[in-house]
UniProtKB/TrEMBL annotation:
Keywords, comma-separated and alphabetical: DNA integration, DNA recombination, DNA-binding
Listed GO MF terms: DNA binding
Protein name: Site-specific integrase
Tyr recombinase domain span: 105-297
Family: Belongs to the 'phage' integrase family.
Species, as recorded: Nitrincola iocasae
Lineage of source species: Bacteria, Pseudomonadati, Pseudomonadota, Gammaproteobacteria, Oceanospirillales
InterPro entries reported in the protein's UniProt record: CB, DNA_brk_join_enz, Integrase-like_cat_sf, Integrase_catalytic, Integrase_recombinase_N, Tyrosine_recombinase_XerCD
Alphabetical list of PANTHER family matching this protein: INTEGRASE_RECOMBINASE PROTEIN MJ0367-RELATED (PTHR30349:SF41), PHAGE INTEGRASE-RELATED (PTHR30349)
Pfam families, per database record: Phage_integrase (PF00589)
Top-level taxon: Bacteria
Gene Ontology annotations of biological process type: DNA integration; DNA recombination
Domain called Core-binding (CB): residue spans: 5-83
Gene3D superfamilies: 1.10.150.130, Intergrase catalytic core
Amino acid sequence: MDDKVTFDELIELYTLEKNLRSSSNKLFISIVSRFSITIDAVYPDDVDRQAVLLWRKDFLKKIKPATINSYIAYLNSFYKFGIKNNYLKSKFSPFEGLSVKAPISNDRRLSDKKINRIFKFIDDNDVLFNRDPSWFWKTVVMVFYHTGMRVSQLIGLNNQDVDLVDGWIRLRAEHSKNYLEYKVPISDDLNRVLVDYISKRKRIANQFFNIHENRLKFDPKRKDYMNSDDVFYAFGLLSKSVGFRVTSHMFRHTLASDIIKSSGNVVYAQRLLGHLSVQTTTRYIHLDTEDLKETLNDCRK
């Protein structure tokens, strides 16, 4: 009888011990399962570094370096777990040190011109995407713009997580990437938008943002709960409407950059984004040539 552990068996052991968030768990299982199917392997021990290098070479033709680095990180963690706990006979992970250099670009930060274009498009239309009230998505965009929260945190908001009296939004641990629970302040502009949103929305369930409760047209695919796919789909349509790529995560990068430009204090940005280390926050900061020129002029006066 073969005593080697299979991919499926090791996946089950890994997820049982790691206790990942639901979304992270699904992503992990998808990545590892797709890898095993792609290279046609049943046992992790049968995969050597040469096979991984060929897989990486082929994948680089199809996806961006940053994406493949995420795949490699998950798979490397998977193998290290198996090796550490003696589930695998291998002594070294075949994914160790195989991340690729990804080009660093400032296109993750939205310029003031693009942000103005986004809000102008929303304000000029009462109905978005043929079925949604514009005030709903304007509020969502404003929340991303003023708080930098992640999609998982936005859809995880319940009514009791938003306190307009004391002026904060609680982002719960189960919806945060690093399991950190923290509060973000509500700016004056965002407060006014949230007050207007609460007065207009239909509140049926406890989820704070739910487009399915507020659609202007009957939706045969109506769901009780708004999920991340609803947000991604809306931002895809928004991108087509304004003529450039817009994602919710871009507002996170934009907020970090704007805070640094305004205050020069990276700790402020770290606190708002909920990062455990300043080093992580620095990856979100994108200063363009004009920003640097302005600073240079100030220090050389």
